[in-house]
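ok so I'm stuck.
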Amino acid sequence: MIKRYYVRTRALQVGMRIDQAIVDRLDRTLIVRGSLLDSYQIAALEKLGIPGVYVSEGEEDPKPEEEKEEKISPLARNNIEKLRTADPSKVKLTESVKKRVSEGIQYLYSNADSEEFANTTTSITNSLMKAINDNQAIAVDITALKTSDEYTFKHSVDVATMSMIIAKKQGMKQDDIYNIGIAGLLHDIGKSKIPLEILNKPARLNDEEFAVMKQHPLLGYEILKNKEDFSKAISLAVLQHHEKMNGKGYPMGVPADKIIPYAKILSVADIYDALVTERPYKKGFSQRTAVEMIMAMTEELDITAMKSFLGSVILYPVDSTVQLSNGEDARVVKNNPHSVLRPTVVGLTSGQVYDLADDLSCASIIIL
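replied:
not stuck anymore, here's the structure
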């Protein structure tokens, strides 16, 4: 049985499970609901002036679930070993890099006019670029971006990382991948100029407030346009990251042919991350639902950027166990780049191989 109660911040202890999401004044998720608090996160809560939070203890189901391995049939084991195809290399950030990036992001959004702004931005981007290049990463495990309980995972880092991988998937040059990383980190920098009463509102914005919020791309552009360390493409990407292919975006409502490639990529990554992020007034969508929603936005998003996103994200990592709509549990043995929602899986009991992407006999089966 789960018990939920309120604890003052100064009384919090390492290992307590927080039962609410913590967001900063820029509406970015700092601590994900359900995280086990560490000393760094508790210190951050104190620094933010948060008097207390809700925590929970206990489990919904006190009975331990039987190990899936014990239920795998001999035929299933054989097919899993025979068909298993490792996922492409994914972006990995070490704990030290996560902490350094987190602190850098906090500094940038609080000190947009600092002389160290450019140096801090390039330092963070260098860390992300190194993480991508060190293991020749060409994919990102999107299930890890928002399920991590690390304080360091912020919306801006998620968008920057996904955008860099999408750019790499499109075959962009290293300089372009690097620049789009900077644009991803800074795409919401204009929110630092939005009134606090709007940024901190714990509910949906009304029409007047949203009209003010919609100015943040323009405000971000104004911050960056005269910084000599950043190319014009970076500031334009920040300006245009909410523009849409059908001309119904903001702040200017320009059509597709007036939107630069960087912004088209940022838009896909930004929308996905916004969909899965929990806010005080809404729960985040599941990764699967968010991907499906992205796929449905063909009039609003650039098709090339969308396909590159879908081709570089991993929704069901190889070796993970999923439940099929036919009632069987299955092991993921191969992902299909052209169909991120439908990998090849092996039924743990039957040993049957389900090629969800290309086998027409599996057309009615989905992953729940």
